[in-house]
TrEMBL record, chain A:
GO terms for molecular function: oxidoreductase activity. Residues 8-352 form the FAD dependent oxidoreductase domain. It comes from Afifella marina DSM 2698. One of its GO terms (cellular component) is cytoplasm. The keyword Lipid metabolism does not apply. InterPro entries: FAD-dep_OxRdtase (IPR006076), FAD/NAD-bd_sf (IPR036188). This is Sarcosine oxidase subunit beta. Keywords: Oxidoreductase.
Automatic annotation (TrEMBL), chain B:
Transmembrane segments: none annotated. One of its GO terms (molecular function) is oxidoreductase activity. This is NADPH-dependent 2,4-dienoyl-CoA reductase, sulfur reductase. It comes from Afifella marina DSM 2698. The lineage of its organism: Bacteria, Pseudomonadati, Pseudomonadota, Alphaproteobacteria, Hyphomicrobiales. It comes from the Bacteria. Residues 9-317 form the FAD/NAD(P)-binding domain. Residues 375-426 form the BFD-like [2Fe-2S]-binding domain. Keywords: Oxidoreductase.
Length: 373, 474
């Protein structure tokens, strides 16, 4: 490298969150460098289930998720690519009356908070939305204007758009150490040192180490959610479906393949970038899929995979400024549901970094919540 | 040989071709327990397919090299190795636990060591018209010949490689004369290959066999077109003709049946799944797993024997299987150094013909750089041009191209397009293919029924906190 590359903002991590924050920061006129140890989208952001849902989110996340959904509905305006986004209902299926009651309570709670996107559907309506659903399913909770997108294409589109706006990407470049020197951040990497006015930690499952170097405690755990995909099937499902009593994430892609995941985890090895399947657990996802959609008895699996994701003990991310340093920020630990949040979190981080302020309700996501743990 | 009862073995061998059978014989001779898993209903692998049931007539057609498989299969049957036919290995974990589908459900086998003896596959040959009905591979024709003696008439063979002329000659013997052989070996290759001739003379029997085959074809009046370029398969909904240039003239051969072949390459699915390191073999123009002198991969206790470790042919495959077996026995304290040395020597003699063959039959430049409109991934209908466009957008390697275009995501799991995709990306980016790499291979290795996964014997479910909404729904 000739000379030390410098920028207003250095982003560690080229997942969707890193790319999105970089894109939005560039739109605000900041010069941005993204440093990625592998390739953009190599980890959670490129291999996730692609679920774009507001449905079922932790209440603290709902406002940001709702904002993100607005962006998703016009995603092409932002990144010049449709990201494979399909608008469709997301539905949590209740298999018993007790489950339906739990869901009804949630819908009522949300209405109280002023959000009306989650609605209860009765058995008849469920059958209309999901003709192939098993007869024992009694109803569900639906968010009708959610959807799904293609994860890698999305992250790649964010990267390309960011690049077009002048963001520099350094891939296959590992951030080893971040340190403060005067007003600037010095970021030591496998390809030399970078300098930046601001630092953003979007290092996914690896973000704990960056936080540690900033003197902050972030009890992040690497997990490896598992997915399977089937051979193409005749179209039978036009919604993204989840379970209520047992975990499931289920959708049929446009080409007819069915993508199944939900809750079951393999073995992650973040040090080597590898993750290993655990079929003795994944079998439960297969069982649940067949239980809720009997048609799946005849399905054939053609591929399975697991991605490495960062999970916080309370299953909500860390979003916001560093508690120990000025001009340092975090957005990580999305706990297996950060794909949908990508557009809005990038937007609010850029605002926060560029202006020092955001109106987005990020207090619940402060890293300080772990200070005494 | 007994039926499977247990599920822990000192050695699990995947593939019952010459390498797998030989390894099984060696390790059981040394007193180790072994199980051999193979998809096929009977031992033999590709080369000796159907060997136990082939009648005299068919064995004669297929020749003495095929007949040699009888003794190998017999020795294997006589060994104490357990043999599980009709067994599709669909996953192997890093602790060497193997999931195998038996049609009626899966079984989990725990191995102390694994010999991957899954052999080779035909190199993918993307060219105009290669996906038309009526177009097949030479290898697929040979399988028909071996399995039930049925072969099609009027076949135009297109490509290069020793197998091409072998299969054409076998068909001739079977009484179904090929329509023509369209060879893609450039004239200049013969010159280049000459320098390997002295070494290859040590393996003169191979050369003589090859010449005899070509001679028999020519005598029978099978036209052989040399140095063919610009090859296209034409047809409306099915193959109708092959067009090409040879000897300065354009040709058009009408036929409804075309057999393509550009040599064979290691089947990397298992070694890639296990994340063994692979390297690019320039001479063979393919990826091969890195192995030591005993064919142990970079993953301890995982061996790859036979063509899976780089193309060496049937005799070498058997020797490699023996060597791997002897090494496993040695590690278990039951070595036989003298025998091991004699196998190593024999392997070296066997290797002498390879440089000549590899130079002569290097894949045709045309299939390595298919035109933009040529389909590369047949399952997902991705063209060479699509791949080049993705590279131009910034996709750095096969896995990004796969995510972006779905190439390699179909039922064949990338077997049919993997090498071609790496090749196209490498040349578009101007980077060596060794840097570009290959698809990551994910289980299942072969399509698996969802219901079979659901029925897997298993541990208890790890509890998922359903109050944690994210667990219930991604
Ligand atoms: C199988 C699976 C299914 C999922 N399904 C869904 C879903 O349906 N809907 C949903 O909303 N969410 C889903 N998620 C979660 C979602 O994918 C993630 O929350 C989100 O992608 C996280 O984005 P990220 O940018 O924080 O992390 P990542 O995509 O992991 O990006 C972090 C990047 O930082 C890089 N990095 C780390 N350390 C360093 C360093 N020191 N130097 C340089 N680079 C570094 C990494 O290489 C990585 O590329 C799923 C996740 C998985 C694994």
């Amino acid at each position: 490298m000739t000379g030390t590359p410098m920028a207003d903002l250095i982003v560690v991590g080229g997942g969707l969150h890193g790319c999105s924050a970089a894109l939005h920061a560039a739109k605000r006129g900041l010069s941005v460098i993204v440093i990625e140890k592998d390739n953009a989208g190599r980890h959670a952001s490129g291999v996730n289930a692609g679920g774009v849902r507001r449905l079922g989110r932790n209440y603290a996340e709902v406002p940001i998720s709702v904002r993100s959904m607005e962006i998703w509905h016009r995603i092409e305006d932002l990144v010049d690519d449709d990201c494979g986004f399909q608008r469709c209902p997301q539905i949590k299926v209740a298999e018993t009356e007790a489950e339906l009651e739990t869901l009804a309570k949630r819908a009522a709670d949300l209405r109280e908070l002023g959000f009306t996107h989650e609605v209860i559907v009765d058995q008849q309506e469920l059958r209309r939305l999901l003709p192939a659903v098993a007869p024992h399913c009694v109803g569900g909770l639906a968010s009708l204007d959610d959807g799904f997108a293609i994860p890698y294409n999305t992250t790649f589109a964010f990267q390309r758009k960011a690049r077009a706006l002048g963001v520099q990407f350094f891939e296959k470049t590992h951030v080893e150490n971040v340190r403060r020197d005067g007003k600037d951040w010095h970021v030591d990497t496998s390809a030399g040192t970078f300098k930046g006015r601001n630092l953003l930690n979007c290092a996914g499952a690896w973000a704990g180490e960056i936080a540690r170097q900033l003197g902050e405690h972030a009890p992040i755990e690497a997990i490896a959610p598992m997915m399977i995909v089937t051979a193409r099937m005749k179209r039978f499902c036009d919604a993204v479906v989840g379970g209520c009593g047992r975990p499931l994430s289920f959708k049929q892609a446009e080409n007819g393949t069915v993508i199944i995941g939900g809750g079951r985890r393999g073995y992650p090895d973040p040090k080597t970038n590898k993750s290993e399947m655990r079929f003795s657990q994944l079998r439960y996802s297969a069982e649940t899929a067949i239980g809720i959609f009997p048609i799946m008895k005849s399905a054939t699996i053609v591929r399975s995979w697991a991605g490495i994701e960062g999970r916080m003990p309370d299953d909500i991310p860390v979003i916001g400024p560093s508690s120990t340093h000025e001009n340092a920020f975090h957005a990580f630990g999305f706990s297996a549901h950060g794909f949908q949040l990508g557009p809005a979190v990038g937007e609010l981080m850029a605002e926060l970094i560029a202006t020092g302020h955001t109106n987005a309700p990020i207090a619940p996501f402060s890293i300080t919540r772990f200070a005494n743990s | 040989m007994s039926a499977t009862t247990k599920n822990r073995y000192d050695v699990a061998i995947i593939g019952a071709g010459p390498a797998g059978m030989a390894a099984a014989v060696e390790v059981t001779k040394a007193g180790l327990s072994a199980i051999v898993l193979d998809e096929q209903p009977a031992p033999g692998g590709q080369i000796y397919r159907g060997i136990e049931t082939s009648d005299e007539k068919r064995t004669k057609i297929l020749g003495p090299d095929y007949a040699a498989g009888r003794d190998i299969a017999r020795a294997f049957r006589d060994s104490r190795a357990e043999y599980l036919p009709g067994a599709t290995v669909w996953n192997i974990d890093s602790a060497l636990g193997i999931d195998v589908s038996l049609g009626q459900g899966s079984k989990h086998i725990q191995a102390g060591a694994i010999v991957v003896a899954t052999g080779a596959i035909e190199r993918p040959t993307p060219m105009p018209g290669w996906t038309l009905p009526g177009v097949t591979t030479a290898g697929a024709l040979q399988i028909l010949l071996k399995a039930n003696g049925v072969v099609s008439d009027d076949v135009v063979f297109v490509g290069s490689g020793p197998l091409l002329s072998l299969i054409a000659a076998q068909m001739l013997k079977a009484g179904v004369k090929p329509r023509a052989i369209v060879e893609t070996v450039p004239q200049s290759r013969y010159v280049a290959a000459l320098k390997h001739l002295p070494a290859a003379l040590g393996a003169a029997s191979y050369l003589l066999k090859g010449m005899a085959m070509m001679l028999s074809l020519r005598r029978a009046g099978v036209p052989i077109y040399r140095d063919a370029t610009g090859i296209r398969i034409e047809g409306n909904g099915k193959a109708e003709a092959v067009t090409f240039t040879s000897g300065g003239k354009s040709h058009r051969l009408e036929t409804t049946s075309v057999a393509l072949h550009q040599g064979i390459v290691p089947n990397q699915q298992v070694t890639r799944l296990l994340r063994c390191e692979h390297e690019w073999n320039k001479s063979q123009h393919c990826f091969v797993p890195k192995v030591d002198e005993y064919f142990e991969t970079t993953m301890a206790d995982v061996y790859v024997a036979g063509d899976g470790a780089g193309i060496g042919g049937a005799v070498a495959a058997r020797l490699r299987g023996r060597l791997a077996g002897l090494r496993i026995a040695e590690k278990a304290g039951r070595g036989n150094a003298q025998e091991r040395r004699s196998v190593t020597d024999a392997l070296m003699r066997e290797a002498k013909i390879r440089p000549l063959l590899e130079t002569l039959y290097a894949p045709s430049p045309e299939i390595l750089a298919p035109a933009d409109e040529t389909l590369v991934c047949r399952c997902e209908e991705v063209t060479a041009g699509d791949i080049r466009k993705a590279v131009d957008l910034g996709a750095p390697g096969p896995n990004q191209v796969k995510s972006f275009l779905r190439s390699g995501m179909g039922p064949c799991q990338g077997r049919m397009c993997g090498l071609a995709v790496s090749e196209i990306i490498a040349s578009r980016r101007g980077e060596p293919i060794s840097e570009i790499g290959y698809y990551r291979i994910r289980p299942p290795l072969k399509p698996l029924l969802l219901s079979e996964l659901a029925a897997l014997e298993s541990e208890e479910a790890v509890p998922v906190d359903l109050a944690d909404e994210s667990a219930a729904l991604h």
